[in-house]
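Quick one: structure for this chain?
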Amino acid sequence: MNTATIVQKLWNYCNVLRDDGMSYGDYVEQLTYLLFLKMADERTRAPYNQPSPVPAEYGWAVLLRKDGDALFDHYRHTLTMLGYERGLLGLIFAKSQNKFQDPAKLRRLVVDLIDKEQWVSMSADVKGDAYEGLLEKNAQDTKSGAGQYFTPRALIAAIVEVMAPQPGETVSDPACGTGGFLLAAHDQVVQQHPHLTKEQRRQLKEETFKGWELVQATARLCAMNLLLHGIGSQDFEPIVVGDALAADPGERFDLILTNPPFGKKSSTTIVGEEGRASRERDSVERNDFWTTTSNKQLNFVQHVKTLLKQQGRAAVVVPDNVLFEGGAGETIRRKLLAECDVHTLLRLPTGLFYAQGVKANVLFFDKKPASETPWTKQLWIYDLRTNQHFTLKTAPLQRADLDEFVACYHPANRHERRPTWSPEIPTGRWRAYDYAELIARDKASLDLFWLKDDSFSDADKLPAPELIAAEIVDDLEAALEQFRLIAAGVDDDTLLS
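Got it. Here's what it folds into:
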């Protein structure tokens, strides 16, 4: 059965449950529990013949035999008891609850939809893509708020392609959401290296990927997403539930790919190497950080630097304020430019993210050993924002929209890059700035533009009215978010003075 058919069957049933008041998110969550139980049962049979991590009394066969109130009671008890287990089982079922209102609808999902398919033997592409389809539909439901955990897959695909993960390299996402970056990295390795050895495939499944996720429910979806794509096992739990910024985990990775959460400043002030705050408000001391700030995005940049191995590579989605904010922001940029090779910046258009008002960029840098001279020589910038117009529904970003960026990035050899901009070609989107130019700018700002906005001079080049309206909303939301950050900063300064 192909992906489209599976997704259609799953969503047809979701529409039935929505009439009972079950949300998209609840549906995906309940589906996660039942799919795990069914696949664990399938693996006990030939040709797998594996012991089930699920205690027999809570297994699929018992659930299948029950009906009516007995099914309801048993299902609820199963979720509770499995939530006490360790490993992947505990991660999937922790704090799980029965969200069904009607035993007959639960019975129908168990018997008619899930039991009739052989999920383990189904290709990882089909079942994994089907689950991804559910997660994306859930992200599109603005009322659920799930969109904040979902990075556009076209953007992820382009980032992973230029980062080019290799067999044997470790990959981490300290804000992994539903696992988009980790899955894309996995797929990239498999597709580009079709003749992996048995040991390399084992490493890819059980030793390569590590994610952190703050929200338990999202971590559950991520773990299931990875499992359906062939990542993780009962013995290898690739997701840690907790605040990634709370401490240095001690682990180091070859690649960091992440889109940390946007939004207001954290209530936690993380105190960096320059000293403790005189008055603390839920502060965390981290000697591996360059400076003290309560700005989550700036702290994530510092955290990513820590997580990288020497010569490790990072791609981090950051909001505009990380590029120009003074104080801690300036300190971090100057340190990053000096101690890492900050080689590429992709300026993203508005209309890509489910959180409105996000003006974002992707910052690419490599971690380097100590040096007396700055590691950054040139920062290459690709402007995908000026004169580009996207919306989530009517004009979503496609992978093809990033083809020129990928070609300009020149992942095969970054030292052979060629600019598309010149004084003679002022519309080129790709150009480089030397370290001396960057460091001499006010606050070492990386907020750089050079393209002319066509709409200012040619009314015929204005986008469609609905795109203009969407961009106005995004601009207003972005402005409000900046004011919130400023206000929060004033509060922090008052508390810490």
